[in-house]
Specification:
The complex is a heterotrimer of chains A (623), B (297) and C (181). Chain B is 71% helix and 1% strand. Chain B is an all-alpha fold. Chain B has one domain. Chain C has one domain: Rossmann fold (3-Layer(aba) Sandwich). Classes of the chains: A mainly alpha (623), B mainly alpha (297), C alpha/beta (181). Chains in contact: A-B, A-C, B-C. Chains A and B meet through helix 17, helix 18, strand 7, helix 21 and strand 8 of A and strand 1, helix 3, helix 4, helix 5 and helix 10 of B. Strand 8 (533-534) of chain A pairs parallel with strand 1 of chain B, so a sheet runs across the interface.
């Protein structure tokens, strides 16, 4: 059995039967979602059997002369595809129940089937043409899903498609350049051919690739679509967008820096601290992305938009780590892909669950849900511990590996950005925790219940994986080390429980057990003392007075609005890139369009006269 | 043997940490020309708190307190205390800093779960000022880790052996001062005590704690102070080969901190951030540039 | 009133706990009366209460002793009761000045309570208008002795005779009192 046959047949058969899935969803949306969950489970199984069979001759077929669709299997591609399919599996499980809240469930599930079909095709692409085709397919499907959520989301979807098409055009231009130069688009062949090309040519290829990658990854300076799109997309689809669609961009960056040997390509370029300047600039862009994402996340009022900006920050970590192309940074960057996929999916799913029951994600309208939705709360908690990079969750491992690389390289700005994002993430991840799950519960949320079990299940799976990979990161590091070996980077050294870095080693199992030991000791001290009396939320220190207003509407006694006002005040009047693109770029583009229009559709006769005279004068001068 | 050593470290941490808090009260009293409470006052306070009744606002309220105390106990085991080095062989600086964050997260979670806005405001202030003081601290440590090629606290203590002038305090003076300032923030000393502002927000995160909750958090506070100063002593004052000598160094550093903090007023919330990002961060970056460019002399 | 909880029935552990309680007294000021003005000198350099382990606390959850520093209008009595019930046991009450004993100069006022003992179980009164810091310190030392001997049982009295106290409180407050638990 040829393994690539299964990947291509997986993609194509899903594409072909997606109309049938639409019909199935019209009949019963739960079956359609369950079917897709099953399909992604099957895909995961196929992928698991393909582990270790790297670089087999790729199967290809011509769609038009000289343009082939081909698939291949290499460790990085396998890793990305595996994560993507895993996240999709949990989302489809979640949607079995969630779809009842969708405005257009059948169309939603249809386009998600298309996205699922595009997934292995994109990540396992053997050549850049395949990559491009599935990239576009995914963009269009995602565009339609995003636009379905509400009235507001149509504008968000337009922003999304405009920026993604720009990225896709850059990718297409790269394809033209590469094809005219080498007359092949096969990734493996290009790997060996690219070093023979000149540095200038490589720089253009690198820049265009990075341009399209940064758009897709949602990294500075092209992150502006993320807030609107993630914030306004259908709730469960936000998890798809953040958990895995922006990994398309990370993958493009990985292709640019790791799969194409960027260190070799730019070995003659000027270096900074031992890193080629193009790579360093890319890493700095990643660092700026961390800082911008962090600062913007702190000031968001809506939980989904907050998580969207946290995705900007994490995309920055991934871009920065992959751009440094060292043993630790690549391992850290690739592991961070997993970390962020799990964490973003966990956070967005828990927010989707909150919205499923309460109808809003605006943080100042919620509160005190911890007693009502304990599983959702636990998922959110574990995801944010991982996001903030605190042991014993997996988020710490990737950040630790990235620190090894920024510190040993002596990159002061990059270390600063990494620390900034890490400490800043404590601030922004805590805000939904404090305002949605803790604090006073408004009267109207008194009867909120936990979501049905089928929606809890994916959240439990994601939380369990976050903890398991955190205690035993060696499971996740195995394919990563394999990938590094495959692409000629020194693989990161680790054993079952210990990761050995450049600066020291870290024993995850030991740390976990010592933490548990400390926790048990604290619990013993705690429970030996007198038992405490459980009191209600409203029995609180209120300086001796408990006004009737608070008893009637407890949300008045809930600190949620403008949570980080003292920090926000420090950068209140910041320049906004979003506004810049919208006004300076967008408006000027519109003016230019209007100008062009007047050239062709003007009904004033004197205008034609002027143009004719000018043209005649010009020709007279020219000839 | 390891178990005995662990027990010794934990008991040292708790007893000496509480002793330090007693010293703090006595020193502040002497600065204010008072007689001050007995030096063992903190032990009495903690014992009394555990004997009192208490209220709980729910499961997370309890669990967060246990997480806070447990996280600090776990952190303590990774810090070398003189010759007592239980797990300090694998005591990576980054791991220790982030393990401390577990404790802070636990306490923040528990405090906010009380549903009291004063607690939320206190936690917001704590996180805000953490954003300020942690950055310069980590930037200095980044330079140190680069220069010594190790992130092990024990390793950094060992390279300073052989005379006082080998101490990082003299080799990396700017960084030592920056970290010293940041430690005021970590241990909640005077210019950085915005989160626990009794007159403004009714002691912030502590507002709803009573009895054993307050007792556990006092223990945690004592441990946090001990761990932080231990890291400083190990990294900048050459550690110590003798247990008592180590404690003496900790006491000296802590006394200096208390004396400074007892005569300066409190920052406003955002002033903490602007101050930290203006001066300590500026000097921290200069120090790390020096370390990266020239290494340690 | 019933004095069933005599000091002799304490267990050894309770005796030890009382020893600690006597040496660490955290105050909560209810500073509506003029007596509060005598507290800063008692706490600062001149008289230094902290040498006895006595210190101010911010919230009733943390405090051991409630200081009623002067007259109580019926309006404030409600808040005092609410605050007292939020304190954790064992808890003590000190009445400051003549106003808490017999109304003081407000003995015939229409909206000031004249006897605090009817509404809250006072452990110790400090007579005087105003009591000097020396008197305050004496009272605190007396309270320390009482706690150590297990005689400061006001909070037990309050729990046992809650109906009686509640009835008094309701009478003074025209039938409206905050019930916290």
């Amino acid at each position: 059995m040829c393994p690539f046959g299964t990947i291509s047949s997986f993609s194509f058969s899903l594409l072909i039967i997606s109309p049938l899935i639409y019909l199935l969803a019209r009949f019963d949306r739960r079956w359609a979602s369950a079917f897709l969950a099953l399909a992604s489970g099957l895909g995961l199984y196929k992928l698991a059997t393909m582990y270790g069979e790297w670089g087999l001759p790729s199967q290809s077929f011509e769609i038009i002369p000289n343009v082939t669709i081909s698939f291949t299997n290499s460790p990085i591609q396998w890793y990305f595809a595996f994560i993507g399919l895993g996240i999709m599996l949990t989302i489809f499980l979640f949607e079995i129940s969630w779809l009842s809240k969708s405005r257009t469930p059948s169309a939603h599930i249809f386009f998600e089937a298309v996205i699922l079909a595009s997934l292995p095709g994109f990540f396992m692409a053997g050549d850049l043409m395949t990559l491009y085709i599935f990239f576009e397919l995914m963009s269009w499907a995602a565009f339609f899903i995003v636009s379905q959520a509400s009235e507001k989301s149509e504008k968000a979807a337009r922003t999304f498609i405009a920026m993604n098409t720009t990225g896709a055009m850059a990718l297409l231009y790269v394809l033209f350049l590469l094809y005219t130069r080498f007359s092949t688009l096969n990734i493996e062949e290009l790997r060996t051919l690219l070093p023979s090309a000149g540095a200038g040519f490589n720089l253009i290829i690198f820049a265009l690739f990075v341009f399209s990658g940064l758009i897709k990854a949602g990294s500075f300076p092209l992150h502006t679509w993320l807030r609107k799109t993630h914030g306004n997309a259908p709730d469960s689809f936000s998890a798809v967008l953040s958990g895995y669609l922006i990994k398309y961009g990370s993958f493009v960056v990985a292709v640019t820096t790791v799969i194409f040997p960027s260190l070799l390509l730019f070995s003659n370029a000027p270096h900074f601290m031992g890193l080629p300047l193009p790579n360093y600039i890319l890493a700095v862009l990643g660092g700026v992305s961390i800082i911008v994402g962090t600062l913007m996340a702190i000031k968001q009022q809506d939980a989904k938009m907050l998580i969207a900006y946290s995705s900007v920050s994490h995309a920055g970590y991934i871009v920065m780590a992959l751009a440094m192309v060292s043993s630790y940074s690549v391992a850290g960057g690739l592991l961070h892909v997993l970390v962020h996929a799990l964490a973003a999916a966990g956070m967005f799913l828990s927010m989707a669950a909150v919205k499923y029951r309460t109808g809003t994600t605006n943080m100042s309208e919620l509160g005190g849900l911890v007693d009502r939705m304990p599983v959702t709360f636990a998922t959110y908690l574990i995801s944010i511990i991982s996001t903030a990079g605190i042991p014993p969750m997996v988020g710490f491992v990737s950040k630790w590996l990235i620190y090894q690389s920024t510190i040993t390289g002596g990159f002061i700005f990059l270390s600063f950005a990494a620390f900034f994002g890490s400490i800043g993430s404590f601030l922004y991840v805590f805000r939904p925790l404090a305002t949605v799950f803790f604090g006073q519960r408004p009267k109207r949320l008194e009867n909120v219940r936990e979501v049905p079990f089928i929606m809890q299940l994916p959240m439990i799976i994601i939380s369990a994986l976050t903890v398991i990979f955190g205690v035993l990161p060696s499971i996740a590091l195995k394919p990563i080390a394999e990938a590094e070996r495959y692409y000629g980077i020194k693989p990161v050294s680790f054993s079952f429980s210990e990761i050995r870095g450049a600066l020291g080693s870290w024993n995850s199992v030991l740390v976990f057990f010592v933490f548990m030991l400390g926790f048990i000791m604290a619990a013993v001290i705690f429970y030996l003392a007198r038992k405490s009396v459980r009191v209600g939320l409203l029995e609180n220190y209120t300086a001796g007075e408990i006004p009737r207003e608070i008893i009637n509407s407890p949300e008045l006694y809930h600190y949620a609005h403008n949570f980080y006002r003292p920090v926000e005040r420090l950068y209140e009047h910041h320049p906004s890139l979003e506004d810049f693109y919208e006004t300076a770029l967008g408006e000027n583009l519109k003016k230019f369009g209007v100008f062009l229009k007047t050239l062709f559709y003007n009904h004033r006769l004197d205008w034609y006269l002027y143009v004719s005279i000018l043209t005649i004068l010009f020709l007279w001068w020219l000839l | 043997m390891k178990i005995l050593e662990s027990a010794a470290v934990i008991i040292t941490g708790i007893v000496f940490g509480l002793f330090l808090l007693g010293v703090q009260r006595k020193l502040v009293a002497r600065v204010q020309r008072r007689y001050g409470p007995p030096i063992w006052q903190q032990f009495i306070d903690v014992a009394k708190l555990f004997s009192k009744s208490s209220i709980s606002h729910g499961f997370v309220f309890d669990m967060g307190v246990m997480m806070a105390l447990g996280g600090t106990i776990a952190t303590l085991l990774f810090v070398p205390i003189g010759k007592l080095q239980v797990l300090s062989m694998s005591g990576d600086f980054i791991v220790v800093v982030y393990l401390m964050a577990v404790a802070s997260l636990g306490m923040a979670m528990s405090a906010v779960n009380s549903g009291n806005p004063n607690a939320s405001i206190g936690v917001m202030r704590a996180l805000t000022q953490m954003f300020g003081y942690e950055l310069p601290y980590l930037m200095v440590m980044m330079g140190m880790m680069f220069a010594y090629r190790t992130s092990s606290i024990l390793g950094m203590a060992q390279v300073q052996q052989g005379g006082i002038l080998n101490w990082n305090l003299f080799r990396v003076p700017i960084g030592a001062i920056v970290v010293f300032i940041s430690m005021f923030g970590i241990s909640g000393k005077k210019p950085f005590d915005t989160p626990i502002a009794p007159a403004e927000i009714a002691s912030g995160p502590m507002v709803e704690y009573s009895g054993k909750f307050l007792g556990s958090l006092t223990l945690m506070h004592a441990l946090v102070i001990f761990v932080d100063i231990s890291i400083f002593v190990n990294v900048f004052l050459g550690g110590a080969s003798n247990y008592w000598f180590f404690l003496l160094k900790v006491l000296a550093v802590f006394s200096l901190m208390v004396l400074i903090s007892s005569v300066i007023p409190r920052f406003r919330v955002e002033q903490v951030v602007t101050f930290s990002w203006k001066w300590p961060l500026f000097f921290a970056v200069i120090q790390s540039v020096i370390l990266v460019a020239m290494g340690v002399r | 009133m019933d004095r069933k909880m005599s000091p002799e029935t304490r267990s050894a552990l309770e005796k030890l706990a009382d020893w600690f309680r006597a040496r660490s007294i955290w105050m909560l000021h209810y500073c509506t009366g003029c007596g509060a003005v005598e507290l800063p000198p008692s706490m600062t350099s001149r008289f230094d209460m902290e040498r006895f382990g006595i210190g101010p606390m911010a919230t009733p959850r943390q405090a051991d002793v409630l200081l009623i520093t002067g007259y109580l209008a019926t309006k404030t009595l409600r808040r005092v009761i609410y605050t007292y019930e939020q304190m954790q046991t064992p808890k003590y009450v000190i009445g400051f000045g003549s106003c808490t004993i017999n109304g003081g100069i407000y003995y015939d006022s229409y909206n000031v309570i004249t006897r605090l003992d009817l509404y809250l179980p006072v452990d110790i009164y400090i007579a005087g208008c105003m009591p000097r810091p020396e008197a305050i310190l004496t009272a605190f030392n007396k309270l320390r002795e009482m706690i150590e001997k297990g005689e400061a049982n006001g909070w037990k009295r309050y729990e046992e005779n809650k109906e009686w106290y509640r009835a008094n409180q309701l009478k003074a407050l025209n039938g409206e009192v905050y019930v916290t638990r």
